[in-house]
Design brief:
CATH architecture of one domain: 3-Layer(aba) Sandwich
Strand content: 25-35%
Shape: globular
Largest sheet: 4 strands, antiparallel
Distance between the termini: 49 Å
CATH class of one domain: Alpha Beta
Number of helices: 5
Structural class: alpha+beta
CATH superfamily of one domain: P-loop containing nucleotide triphosphate hydrolases
Order of helices and strands: HHEHEHEHEEEEEEE
Number of strands: 10
CATH topology of one domain: Rossmann fold
Helix content: 25-40%
Strand order of the largest sheet: 4-5-10-9
Length: 236
């Protein structure tokens, strides 16, 4: 870089970053590589997604969940925050509670079989050790310990090639006749014997269409192909 700096300056009349800036870039790249290795070590690191029971927030969390699965990062739990308790039914917050219940159905559908943990709407902001202890007691239990690994495998696996993608879902004990499939924009909806799974695909796959679905080794593999583009007309 030092040897190239005078040449580039004479040709482009643009200053090149100094050695300190290049060292910072190298450190950043090295840290990202190290972080990738840490997050892929499923025996030492997992990810837990936290969201409010709001449709838009859930949609973004679903998309994040898909990318985490795409890159092999294990999500072992989902935490839904600020959930209204049953006690508010029939009060001013009753309608909000009912709407939250609808959104929670989507959460269970989208993130299954990852455990979904609910954090209640407290009467005070969660700040300080006392409120954090209340939150921990409400979310975690003997069944779902905060320090335990709550889920051990990827919920689904997405593989993307140049013009084809495949989604692999673990559906043990499912029969071919139990499975139905449809795609609505970026959402892939799979029903297995009455249970629904909703997968939010990357936006680039929104127009791709399912062309094949097959059962293999206890998993459903759905193939998506890029939609053919209409021919462009020449303008004379």
């Amino acid at each position: 870089m030092a040897a190239a700096r005078p040449i580039v300056r004479s040709v482009l009349d643009l200053p090149l970053p100094g050695s300190a800036a290049m060292d910072d870039v190298r450190r950043l790249v090295g840290n990202l590589i190290d972080m990738n290795e840490i997050l892929r070590d499923r025996e030492r690191a997992t990810i837990r997604l936290v969201m409010n029971p709001d449709k838009m927030v859930i949609g973004e969390a679903m998309r994040t969940f898909t990318y985490l699965n795409l890159y092999g990062y294990l999500t072992d739990a989902v935490v839904v925050n600020r959930v209204f308790p049953d006690a508010v039914a029939g009060t001013y917050f009753g309608a909000w509670r009912d709407r939250q219940r609808e959104h929670l159905e989507l959460v269970h559908s989208a993130f299954a079989p990852v455990p979904v943990l609910l954090a209640p709407y407290f009467d005070a902001e969660v700040a300080g050790p006392v409120m954090l202890d209340r939150l921990a007691d409400a979310v975690f239990s003997d069944e779902h310990s905060a320090a335990a690994l709550l889920h051990e495998s990827l919920s689904h696996e997405l593989t993307i090639e140049e013009r084809r993608a495949s989604v692999r879902l673990h559906v043990p004990f499912a029969d071919r006749g139990d499975i139905s499939l449809k795609k609505i924009g970026p959402e892939l909806v799979v029903r297995v014997d009455g249970q629904k799974r909703t997968i939010m695909l990357p936006p680039a796959l929104a127009a791709w269409r399912p062309t094949e679905a097959r059962l293999a080794d206890g998993a459903l593999v759905v193939t998506l192909d890029e939609a053919e583009r209409p021919p462009t007309a020449d303008v004379g």
